[in-house]
Design goal:
By secondary structure, the chain is mainly α. It contains three helices and no strands. The protein is elongated, with a radius of gyration of 15 Å.
């Protein structure tokens, strides 16, 4: 991990907040998945990507 940091100056576990524009339909699907799985929406998106 430190070797990666030396090369890139980034830690592999760093997170960054971004803004996205999603349709209401997509947001509702994400909320439904959140209720079904109990996982936060950010984790659902991360797993799918």
């Amino acid at each position: 991990m430190l070797e990666y940091f030396d090369k890139t100056r980034k830690l592999p576990f760093q997170r960054k907040r971004i803004d996205l524009t999603l349709s209401i339909e997509t947001i509702n699907k994400l909320k439904k998945l959140k209720k079904e799985t109990g996982k936060p929406i950010s984790q659902i998106i991360k797993e799918r990507i």
